[in-house]
Amino acid sequence: MSSESKVLLPEKDLPEAWFNIIPRLPRPPAPPLDPRTGEPVKPEALLRIFPRALIEQEMSSEPWIEIPEEVRAVYRLWRPTPLRRARNLEKALKTPARIYYKDESVSPPGSHKPNTAVAQAYYNRKEGIRRLATETGAGQWGSSLAFACQLFGLECTVYMVRVSYQQKPYRRTLMHIWGAEVYPSPTDRTEAGRRILSENPETTGSLGIAISEAVEDAATHEDTNYALGSVLNHVLLHQTVIGLETQRQLALLGEKPDILIACVGGGSNFGGFTFPFIGEILEGRLSAEVIAVEPTSCPTLTKGVYRYDYGDTAGLTPLLLMHTLGHTFEPPGIHAGGLRYHGDAPLVCQLVEEGIVKPRAYPQNPCFEAAVLFARTEGVIPAPETSHAIRAAIDEALRCRETGEEKVIVFNFSGHGHFDLAAYDDYLEGKLEDYEYPEEKIREALAKLPKFPTGI
Ligand SMILES: *Cc1c(COP(=O)(O)O)cnc(C)c1O
User: Fold this and answer.
1) Which of 85, 177, 183, 281 has the least C-beta neighbours within 10 A?
2) 290 - beta bridge partners?
3) What is the reported pLDDT for 435?
């Protein structure tokens, strides 16, 4: 045990390769299926919207994938990120546990998302693409991709869900500062958008519609590709810099984690943080609990079914084998917008099925309570998504207080909440609603699952 309150790695310890969990899994992942044929998707079919390098990474069985020097050069703007010990929080909880958190909030956009945005912009640029199109809800992914495109000289078009465009102007401003064009979706720039607008001109938009617009934009322009901020294997791969650095930092402290925790929206910060450790667990070198935390209002891992489903609401993407609440499920409007996804990364779901990852769900009020305690002890204001991981870390630390166990709890601090202060206002004024399991809505959505194979 060490008395350090933070561990900063030197730049030379920035990882040189991403960690690929695929070849280390007990069983190979189930392939994405073409919804028209039920056959595995051919890589060539994806070339219209993704660069070849990312399609290869999506299916790669190489145990390590080298990080290009150009990508590492951009990572060095904020990486390696600190591993911090939450000593004041430990004191406030009177716990014998030691609580550490990996601080991904220090990136320019304020979250883990640029770890993949930078890599995706690099490979697209290298393959001659001039522009990237994407969707964004609250703006965390859009601002990360805008930042990455700016650094690699790419244009960036962001379809931002109309209601967020109007209600969350500051992330839109970030995107403008980093040179992106941002449109409130639905727009009249795409077939999909025009159709929705003609049916319902007053629509507030949805992530599903915004995805349809971004994919159509990419598919209909030769020089334009599409970029996705979570769920897919290559996105989780890029995020493994988080876990790789954390392994080194814990080793410097002489610590071994007993409990690893991260929140799950599409699974990218969770996968990036835990996969290198899960590699050790699979090889029998580490014994640790791995906890995935989601909201009770969108309980994908805890209450979803393990089935092939569409990745998007509109039903345009290949089918993925994952825990799903049904692609038509619209979760209640909680503040942790980044956790409102009907499915989850297939790799994370597979590890839940294997029993290696334990999922858990919380309502939003106890999460905000945890976030405020964290802000009052450690200073940093967490993103509403991150507050779910903090709630679980606090509960585990309180359990240690009862048993007297000196466990090492490590969680991923996926982002700060500086653009989410309105959500904190609502919480402090007692205006936040807790949504329990929306059983009826989920049953309806599950009835609309595509009729495709149910297992591996
Ligand atoms: C987007 C986001 C998430 C959820 O996305 P994952 O892909 O599950 O990581 C969590 N935390 C923050 C701060 C985010 O911006």
Assistant:
1) 177
2) 260, 357
3) 82
Alpha carbon distance 34, 15 (integer Å): 35
Q: Are 75 and 385 in contact (CB under 8 A)?
A: no
| Residue 451 resides in a domain | no
Domain that holds residue 155: 17-65+112-233
Asked if residue 168 belongs to a domain, the reply is: yes
Give me ligand 1 centre to Cα 195, in Å.
30
Q: CA-CA distance, 284 to 315, in Å (whole number)?
A: 40
CA–centroid distance, 160 to ligand 1, in Å, is 17
> Are 29 and 155 members of one domain?
yes
* 8 Å CB contact between 416 and 382: yes
- Residues 218-234: tens digit of each pLDDT: 999 999 999 999 999 99
Q: Which residue has the tokens 């998504």?
A: 385
Summarize pLDDT for 2-47 with one digit per residue, the tens: 568 899 999 999 999 999 999 999 999 999 999 889 999 999 989 9
Whether residue 150 is found in the same domain as residue 176 = yes
Q: Say how many Å lie between the CA of residue 78 and the centre of ligand 1.
A: 18
The closest-lying atom of ligand 1 relative to the alpha carbon of residue 344 is: 8
Tell me, yes or no, whether 220 and 261 share the same domain. Answer: no
Is residue 199 domain-shared with residue 276, that is, in the same domain?
Answer: no
Residue 1 lies in a domain: no
CB contact at 8 A, 96 and 400? yes
Pairing of strands 83-85, 6-7: antiparallel
pLDDT digits (tens, 9 = 90+) for 303-348: 999 999 998 777 778 999 999 999 888 777 777 777 878 899 999 9
Q: Is the CB of 352 under 6 A from ligand 1?
A: no
Phi, psi of 21 (to 5 degrees): -80, -20
The reply to whether 205 and 283 lie within a common domain is: no
Q: Tell me how many domains the chain contains.
A: 2
State which ligand 1 atom lies nearest to the alpha carbon of 339.
4
Q: Which of 181, 200, 233 is the last residue of a domain?
A: 233
Instruction: Collect the ranges in the chain with pLDDT lower than 50.
Output: 454-456
CA–centroid distance, residue 140 to ligand 1 (Å): 8
Is 140 near ligand 1, meaning CB less than 6 Å away? yes
Q: Do residues 138 and 436 make contact, with C-beta atoms less than 8 angstroms apart?
A: no
Residues 131 and 99 in one domain: no
Q: Which residues pair with 293 in a beta bridge?
A: 263, 360
Beta carbon of 416 within 6 Å of any ligand 1 atom:
no
Q: How far is the CA of 257 from the centre of ligand 1 (A)?
A: 22
Atom 7 of ligand 1 has which residue's CA nearest to it?
268
**106 lies in the same domain as 59:** no
**φ, ψ for residue 453 (rounded to 5)?**
-50, 145
pLDDT of residue 453: 55
